[in-house]
Amino acid sequence: MSKLRISGVSRTFPPAGGGKAVRALEPVTLDVADNDFITILGPSGCGKSTLLRIVAGLSQPTTGQVLLDGEIVTRPGPDRGMVFQSYTLFPWLTIKENICFGLREKGVPAAIQNERAAFFIERVGLRGFEGHYPKMLSGGMQQRTALARALANDPKILLLDEPFGALDNQTRALMQELLLGIWEQDRKTVLFVTHDIDESIFLANRVLVMSARPGRIKSDIAVNLPHPRDYKIKTSTDFARYKAQLTEEIREESIKAMIAMQA
Ligand code: ADP
Ligand code: MG
Fold it and tell me: Which end of the chain is more exposed for a tag (fewer CB within 10 A), N or C?
């Protein structure tokens, strides 16, 4: 059985203010194996966030269903750790309190909360910042906190929606290495949405390319680059081959998306 099964999931948004209904997603069917790191690549507006929100249980599918370990997803839950592009930390809580938030909600004893928080604070390189408030930290540090918070709950799957999209290039590259390093140790199942081709190849063992809206999975490409990976792999000939292929596919979809917007 697959870890995550997305089965015939589509989404149409009802018309707003006398307009037309928006068909955001064509039926999508996808099996995600345990320990997969899947990146979902597609042009803006193709339904990537819609799909991820449905897996998170934040949005309901119009048709189809999502099964996580065989159970139908109907609402958000601690078994799915989410990180979004815009910082979603609680501004009134410290870094440590943010990381402990889900554990506290679950009624985990304080001693265990402290232990888990310390472990993940160390792992994302935030030691010394436990008592800081989010606004005192850089964007990269805030996203490391969000990642630590998601991991501290020990979710079955991590759902990341352009988590590094608002960061500068240097920070972004470091965050990719950090996340990949964590994955290489834990092999947690990950669904990671991005519109950055390099990021999609560097992180994944499988890249899904989505078509222009209404989104569907246009191709499913296995990335057979060895682990552990570091930034140097981005200059390898194998990497360049994946990049050429994906650039071509994304270009076609981006042109379609642009034409659809003008129509
Ligand atoms: P992506 O994340 O790939 O950029 P989204 O999933 O955010 O795309 O959006 C897909 C399409 O669905 C877009 O055309 C968007 O405008 C539309 N859409 C997303 N959310 C809503 C909503 N709540 N109501 C109406 N339309 C929406
Ligand atoms: Mg999006």
Answer: C
- C-alpha distances (whole Å) from 2 to each of 6, 20, 38 are 10, 37, 14
Assess if CATH 3.90.249.10 describes domain 1-79+157-169+178-263: no
* Ligand nearest to the backbone CA of 213: 1
How far, in Å, CA of 231 to CA of 75, rounded? Answer: 37
Give the H/E segment covering residue 24: strand 22-32
Spacing, Cα 43 to ligand 2 middle (Å): 9
- Which atom belonging to ligand 1 lies closest to the Cα atom of 52? 6
Residues near 162 by beta carbon (within 8 Å), at least 6 away in sequence? 84, 85, 193, 194, 195
> Whose alpha carbon is nearest atom 27 of ligand 1?
13
pLDDT higher than threshold 80 for residue 1: no
pLDDT tens, 125-168?
999 999 999 999 999 999 999 999 999 999 999 999 999 999 99
Determine the residue of 10, 50, 162, 261 to mutate for testing ligand 1's pocket, defined as the one with the most ligand atoms within 8 A of the Cβ atom.
50
Domain locations along the chain: 1-79+157-169+178-263, 87-154
Structure tokens, 129? 């910042």
Count other Cβ atoms within 10 Å, centred on residue 261.
11
How many angstroms does the Cα of residue 50 sit away from the middle of ligand 1?
A: 6
Query: Longest C-alpha distance within the chain, in Å?
Result: 59
Give CA–CA dist 89/142, Å, rounded: 8
pTM: 0.95
Beta carbons within 8 Å of 4's beta carbon, 6+ residues apart: 30, 31, 32, 55, 66, 67, 68, 157, 189, 191
